[in-house]
Specification:
Elements: E1 20-24, E2 27-30, E3 35-38, H1 41-44, H2 53-65, H3 76-88, E4 95-99, H4 102-117, E5 121-124, H5 134-137, E6 144-146, H6 147-151, H7 155-164, E7 165-170, H8 184-196, E8 200-204, E9 228-231, E10 242-246, H9 248-257, H10 269-284, H11 287-307, E11 313-318, E12 321-325, H12 331-340, E13 343-344, E14 346-348, E15 353-356, H13 364-379
Parallel strand pairs: 3-13, 5-6, 5-7, 7-8, 8-9
Antiparallel strand pairs: 1-2, 2-3, 4-10, 9-10, 11-12, 12-15, 14-15
This protein binds pyridoxal-5'-phosphate.
Residues 101-103, 106, 129-132, 171, 174, 204, 206-207, 232-233 line the site of pyridoxal-5'-phosphate (PLP).
């Protein structure tokens, strides 16, 4: 083993990627002096692009002032970040706590639901990655039921299952990077049934949040009002900050339930400053409507290729969360070819899927360039 390599070298890529030394906007520079257009936004995180000036300035300013004071102490920037987050999440009188990773936010969301309902059962849609560990990270263990299993139940079995469910977890369409948008009617029906039985709706917005789908959050495309929202990734534009937002009612119930939770980087001023700068930049740069426009341009360009019948299939997306399928067994080849053309995309080899999640600041020319690169691959 080479000194300096990762203990967990899980690249997930079918191609060799050169070392990256710098990034600006959608472009990454490699040690070999090559520019690559990053159509994965890191791990779907750099929604504002790499090295965003306002985010970097906020990070540096806060790092100089104070990075970390401990969750027992209050800090004005943390209060501002929490308040702005509650506002954009549609819970202006709710409460939030800042954490460090998406997994942690989802896990805490579920712990909150279990604590206030007194039930630790979880109803989840199958095929959705929710967490690296814990209750949500290990589907098939503990008291988890998929919506598909639940829908196959009737009568007493269904009532029993419902009586154990503290939360239904909705992930609004990333679907482990396959971009499978949930059926709005099915979601509304399941959520109504769980709510009527006293359970909560926890929404995992780790990937779909912070403008990725053309709205602040993915659930805002559906007819549901969450009790708990978990955010991460885009919240820090690559800096590790995440959060849980709850409605006023759930905040009151959390207080009554006496739930205690603490970790070292809870409500750190540095993460708060970054998240606040991200929210302000999305607003100042009109990135929600830009995402709708660029997303429409991207899916229309790919749909035109699909219409030629040359090998692109099942183009799907919402905003700048997009995927398409290629001929069976060719996803690795497609990914490598796009990398050769200067575009970094994701590939799911098992599903023959190419994933396209560019930063929301992507330009029309970069999208046209990408669609041309896909066309060149197909015709080569
Ligand atoms: C939908 C979703 N939820 C939760 C997570 C976990 O976030 P993190 O990797 O920041 O812990 C991910 C990560 O990819 C995700 O895609």
């Amino acid at each position: 083993m080479t000194r300096g390599t990762s203990l967990l070298p899980l690249s997930g890529l079918a191609v060799e990627v050169p070392d990256v030394v710098a990034g600006s906007g959608c472009v990454l520079q490699t040690t070999a002096g090559r520019d690559l257009v990053d159509f994965e936004s890191g791990v779907w995180s750099a929604n504002l692009g790499h090295g965003h000036p306002a985010v970097t300035a906020a990070l540096v300013k806060q790092a100089v002032a104070v990075m970390h004071v401990g969750y027992r102490w209050s800090h004005p920037i943390v209060m501002r970040a929490r308040a702005r987050l509650c506002e954009v999440a549609g819970a202006p009188d709710g409460q939030a706590v800042l954490l460090a990773s998406g997994s942690e936010a989802v896990e805490l969301g579920l712990r909150i639901a279990a604590s206030v309902t007194g039930r630790d059962g979880v109803l989840r849609f199958s095929g959705h990655y929710l967490s690296a560990y814990g209750a949500a990270g290990a589907p098939g263990t503990g008291r988890q039921v998929t919506v598909e299993e639940f829908d196959a139940m009737g009568g007493e079995e269904r009532r029993d299952a419902l009586a154990r469910v503290g939360a239904v977890v909705l992930e609004p369409g990333n679907a482990s990077g396959l971009v499978r948008l949930p059926d709005a009617r099915q979601v509304a029906r399941v959520v109504d049934e769980v709510r009527a039985a006293g359970g909560l709706l926890v929404v995992d917005e780790v990937t779909t949040g912070f403008g990725r789908t053309g709205r602040w959050f993915g659930f805002q495309h559906l007819d549901v009002r969450p009790d708990v929202v978990a955010v991460g990734k885009g919240a820090g534009n690559g800096y590790p900050v995440s959060a849980v937002v709850v409605t006023r009612e759930i905040a009151n119930r959390v207080e009554c339930a006496g739930l205690r939770y603490a970790q070292s980087h809870q409500d750190d001023p540095l993460g708060a400053a970054v998240m606040l700068a991200v929210i302000e930049a999305i607003e100042a740069e009109g990135l929600l409507s830009a995402t709708v426009d660029r997303g429409a341009q991207l899916t229309a360009g790919l749909a035109r290729l699909a219409a030629t019948g040359q090998g692109v299939r099942a183009v799907r997306g919402r905003g700048l969360m997009c995927a398409f399928d290629v001929a069976p067994g060719t996803a690795a080849q497609a990914q490598a070819s796009l990398l050769d053309s200067g575009y970094l995309v994701g590939a799911n080899l098992a599903h023959d899927t190419i994933r396209v999640y560019p930063p929301l600041v992507v330009t029309p020319a970069q999208i046209d360039g990408f669609v041309s690169a896909v066309r060149a691959y197909l015709t080569a």
